Amino acid sequence: MYMYKMPAKTLTLVEYPSLQACKSVWKHPKVSDEDRCRVKTYCDRAIENGGSVSVDYNTKYECGRYYVTDASMHSACPMPGVVRATLFSDTEHDVDIVNCHPNILLDIMEKHYPGGALYPHLTRYVENRDEILASFQMKDKGVAKALFPIIMYGGSVRTWEKEFELTPKDYTLPPFVVEFEAEIKMLTTIILNNPAFKSVWQSFWRYKRDIAKEEHESKHMKKGKLPKNAPVFDVDDFDIHEGKKLSAVLQDHERLILEEAMKFAQERGVCVTSYCYDGFQALKQDFPPAFIDDLNAHIQSTDLGCRIEFIIKPFKTPLDLGDIKESERFDMREFEMIDEYSAKKAYFEKFHFKCIEPPCYVRVNKHSQQLLTLNAFPKVYNNLTIPSPPGCIFPRTSFTGRWMEDPEMRTYDNMDVLPPPLSCPEYTFNSWVDFPITEVPLDPTADTSRIYKHLDYTSNHNPLVKEYLLNWFAQMVQFPAHKSLVAILLQGEQGAGKSVVGEKLMEKILGLDKMMITSRLDHVLGKFSDSRGRILTVMNEMSGKDSFASEQLLLDHITAERVMCENKGIQSFQTKVYDRLIASTNSLNSVKIEKGDRRWMAVSVDNSIKNNKEYFDPLYKDLADEVVMRKFFEDLMTRDLSQWNPIKDRPVTELSEDMKELNADPLDLFEDYLRKNQLANEEQTGAELYAMFKEWWKQEGRNSDHLMTRTKFGTVFKRRPNVMCKKGSSCMWYSLASIQNEA
Question: Model pTM?
Answer without folding.
Answer: 0.56
